[in-house]
């Protein structure tokens, strides 16, 4: 039950907090971009509910409840494995989509530097600690955060790839840990 609550908290944090939330602030963000995180939150909610029923089954020593608990854990395990496989298979697509969103925002900014896109591109630069598509563009008046040093600033397209790689690995590690917990609970039930 506690592991399910931890999965829910982790999935919601990745979706609404941290660096990944800035990718969703743009209206052009595709809906399937965060689909794996929604599945993670759903699996966490199901795990929490099933954990409660497993505790009730163990307390009452009911073989029927424990059998249902085992069956539900099997379904959760299958959902976790499926979400993990889709996350790693779709990694390239997710990176390409995020880079395309940045490039579209960048192109919109270049067409109208004082428009609404100014805040969006600034949030990208702040979240990713980058500025532009290459370092020469820093002199072109892009809205870059003050704390970025010009020689250190890197290509935002490269930074997008690094962030998505890092978070997908984190999601994979947490998923493997939760799947291991699910398997051990199944054996005990």
UniProtKB/TrEMBL annotation:
UniProt topology in membrane: Multi-pass membrane protein
Family from the record: Belongs to the tetraspanin (TM4SF) family.
UniProt xrefs under Pfam families: Tetraspanin
GO cellular component term, pick one: plasma membrane
Keyword Iron-sulfur applies: no
Subcellular location: Membrane
Gene name as annotated: Tspan2
Record protein name field: Tetraspanin
């Amino acid at each position: 039950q506690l592991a399910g609550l931890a999965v829910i908290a982790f999935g919601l944090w990745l979706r609404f907090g941290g660096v990944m939330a800035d990718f969703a602030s743009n209206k052009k963000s595709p809906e399937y971009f965060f689909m794996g995180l929604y599945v993670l939150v759903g699996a966490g909610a199901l795990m929490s509910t099933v954990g409660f029923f497993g505790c009730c089954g163990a307390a009452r020593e009911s073989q029927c409840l424990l059998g249902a608990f085992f069956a539900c854990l099997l379904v959760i395990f299958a959902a976790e494995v499926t979400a993990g496989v889709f996350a790693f298979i779709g990694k390239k697509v997710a990176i390409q989509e995020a880079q395309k969103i940045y490039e579209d925002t960048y192109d919109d900014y270049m067409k109208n530097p004082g428009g609404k896109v100014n805040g969006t591109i600034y949030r990208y630069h702040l979240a990713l600690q980058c500025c532009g598509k290459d370092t020469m563009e820093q002199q072109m008046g892009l809205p870059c955060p003050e704390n970025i040093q010009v020689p250190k600033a890197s290509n935002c397209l490269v930074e997008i790839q690094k962030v998505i790689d890092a978070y997908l690995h984190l999601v994979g590690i947490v998923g493997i840990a939760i799947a291991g917990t699910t398997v051990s609970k199944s054996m005990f039930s």
